[in-house]
Amino acid sequence: MKILGLDPGLRYTGWGLIEASGNRLRFLGCGRIAVPENLELAERLAFLHRALETVFAETQPEAAAVEETFSNVNAKSTLKLGMARGVVMLAPALAQIPVAEYPANVVKKTVTGAGHAAKEQIQAMVKILLPQSDFENADAADALAVAICHAHHAQTAQKTTERIKA
To answer: Choosing from 62, 136, 139, 142, which is the catalytic residue?
Structure first.
């Protein structure tokens, strides 16, 4: 299964594509969408949507996973981040790609074993789990971590469903 992990942001949105087959993970690609800051909010959201459509067209994922965002102290920033997250959730849904959500601490715990891991720990573990990964920034590394998290949790859910049916 090709899984596209997404780390939403209004300024930068990271994406990471992996292939999961059982316990095996394979790095397929990653990157970061940089949204021009000089655009009006609606134009920035539209830019993000168009860029995500391009990523989907180029990568052809079978599933998408999005990191849930936490609220900031600044309500205005939190609202804008929520809008970007809405676009990040909507884009794969419109492309008929199933979308899963994971809280940041679940992603961190799944990838590093600690729910409050630092960015450097996440990047180090992503590099261990996906040795071919060539991420150049934390946004892409975080998106790969979200994809890894989904691969792990989707496999666990599938095994549970198979046991229930048996």
So the answer is: 139
- Active-site pick, 7, 53, 68, 162: 7
Residue 71's pLDDT band (boundaries 50, 70, 90)?
low
pLDDT in tens, 35-55: 999 999 999 999 999 999 999
In single-letter form, the type of residue at position 7 comes to: D
Catalytic annotation present for 7? yes
Q: What is the pTM of this model?
A: 0.90
Domain with 113 in it = 2-165
Non-local (6+) Cβ contacts of 107 within 8 A are: 67, 142, 145, 146, 149
- Scored b (16 or more CB within 10 A) or e, 65-103 reads bbbebeeeeeeeeeebbebbbebbbebbeeeebebbebe
Q: What is the largest CA-CA distance in the chain?
A: 56
Compute the distance between CA of residue 11 and CA of residue 51 in angstroms, rounded to an integer.
13
Band of residue 161 on the pLDDT scale cut at 50, 70, 90: very low
CATH of the domain at 52: 3.30.420.10
Total domains, the chain: 1
Catalytic choice (40, 62, 67, 120): 67
DSSP assigned state of 1: -
